[in-house]
Structures are given as C-alpha cells and as structure tokens.
Amino acid sequence: MLAPIGILGGTFDPIHYGHLRLAEEAREALALEQTLLIPSGQPPHREVPQTAAGDRLAMARLAIVANPSIVVDPAEAESATPSYSVLTLERLRAKFGPARPLVLLLGADAFAGLPSWHRWRELFALAHIAVANRPGHPPHARRFPETLSQALAAECSQRFGANANELRTSPAGRILPFDMTPLAISASLIRAQLAAGHSVRYLLPDSVLDYILSNHLYA
Ligand code: ATP
C-alpha cells in the first residue's frame, strides 16, 4: 500500500493559518505522506490575485519552513499559462505513477465551485478529493450532496462518503468529507484588514506578515 500524497492548491494571497491547519489536519486524518502546496499562477476561474505569483510563492515558502511534511511546488506560479487543476493533476499523476493515491484537499467553498473548473469531471480519474468544512459555507460536510448543484451531486453520489482507508487502497475517485478545526480566516479578510490599517497578527505566520510589511503588500 502506498501512502497518499496531499495536494493543496490556491491563490494563497496571502497564505494563512486556515490553509496551514487544513494541510496539517488532513495529514493526520488521512495519513498523508506529504502535501504539495501549489500557489497558482494565473487562476482561470477567479479574480486576478492582488500580488505577483513570485510574492505568493515566497510567502508560501516562508510559511512552511521547518515542516518536512509540506513541500512547495512552484510549477503553477512559475508558468505563464493559466493554472488549471486538471493539468497539474495530470503532471503529478505522471510523476507519482498510476498506483499512488493522490488527494486533492479542498475547503467546502472550493468544492461547491467545482463545476466551474476546466474539465472538472476528469479530476475524479486523477485524484481523490478530501473536503474540509469551512465557516460560512454549507453546514456539515456529510450533507454536501443535498446542497450542491445537480451536476456536482450527480457526479459525486457514487463517490461520496469514502473513509480514510479507501483513500489508501485506490489511487483516485473517492470523495471524503473531513472535519477540521473551524477557522473563519480568509485571505480576503486579511487583505481588507491590512488595507484598513488593522492588525492581522496571529491570523498568519509572523514570517509571512514580516514579508508583507517589508514589501508593502496589500497596503
Ligand atoms: P480568498 O479569501 O482570497 O478567496 P482563501 O482564503 O479562500 O482566499 P484560497 O487560496 O482561495 O484562500 O484557498 C485555497 C484552498 O484553501 C481552498 O480549497 C479553500 O477552500 C481552502 N481554505 C482557505 N481558507 C480556509 C479555511 N479557513 N478553512 C478551510 N479551508 C480553507
């Protein structure tokens, strides 16, 4: 049995403790060998990030210093082409081989938006999906199918409700809701607080805050 690899993509504009706890609690709950943290370059389905890919990459690297279970993958941030998760997963599937379980880690908000993603139905052939609760988004993970769009619910009904063991015994295709400490932290909240001149200390690592302040980001 091969230990699963977690994949956490995002704009990380900036990275914060919501992201880091998601990675850490998924590691424990799903027995992940490693999680790849993948800052996007040009995200195709959302607003253009406020900061350059290079800054978001630098902040991600600062945030995970001294944590060997998380590795920053710079490929999307360094690419000039739009960041599509399906292409990233194809690349990682080729790198890790057909048998290795890959687990895409998503917050509840990101999961609910899946049908807007490029070639989203193909994601299930490439990876499992683990969905974490997120304050302000549909109540409990186990009730997602009732609250989702029809397309997503239809696609997910046979895959939904896997347990952590199933994620280890197959390479892709199952959906596992999991509970994490609810943290009502978002990058947009942090950007708004900074723009208003308010403190964001303890919402994100000090090293990331130092980088933001010394580079005059989000001011
Ligand atoms: P923004 O506020 O700019 O939309 P964000 O805080 O949602 O940003 P992203 O980079 O868009 O951050 O998120 C990357 C991934 O992390 C997504 O799957 C998202 O659902 C998840 N995530 C972010 N914050 C949390 C949180 N507080 N709890 C659970 N999941 C989270």
TrEMBL record:
This enzyme catalyses: nicotinate beta-D-ribonucleotide + ATP + H(+) = deamido-NAD(+) + diphosphate
Q: Where is the signal peptide?
A: none
Indicate whether Transcription appears among the record's keywords: no
Q: Which residues form the Cytidyltransferase-like domain?
A: 7-191
UniProt-listed Enzyme Commission number(s) = 2.7.7.18
Which InterPro entries does the UniProt record give?
A: Cyt_trans-like, NadD/NMNAT, Rossmann-like_a/b/a_fold
Query: Which SUPFAM superfamilies does the record associate with it?
Result: Nucleotidylyl transferase
Biological process annotations from GO: NAD+ biosynthetic process
Please give the family membership noted in the entry. Belongs to the NadD family.
The record's section on HAMAP family has:
NaMN_adenylyltr (MF_00244)
Protein name in UniProt: Probable nicotinate-nucleotide adenylyltransferase
- Protein source organism: Candidatus Methylophosphatis roskildensis
